[in-house]
Design a protein that fits this description.
Blueprint: E1 7-12, E2 18-23, E3 29-35, H1 38-52
Antiparallel strand pairs: 1-2, 2-3
């Protein structure tokens, strides 16, 4: 059985700022808001996607 991990997607918010959508293997979607730039969102994804490799059951990422 293969281990499934969440998918992280940075997206531009309407108006200003950026958010991260987290698509969980069970179909749930979580939104993290509050990034000023795309770089900030991408950095958050890089940090949290590495962390999720060790624990796929924790659905509590910390917002910026």
């Amino acid at each position: 059985m293969s281990e499934q991990r969440p998918t992280f997607v940075a997206r531009k918010n309407p108006g200003s700022g950026w958010g991260v959508d987290i698509l969980w293997p069970d179909g749930e979607t979580e939104v993290i808001k509050g990034f000023v730039t795309e770089h900030d969102a991408a950095k958050w994804i890089a940090e949290h996607s590495r962390a999720s490799q060790g624990s796929t059951n924790d659905k509590s990422p910390q917002a910026p």
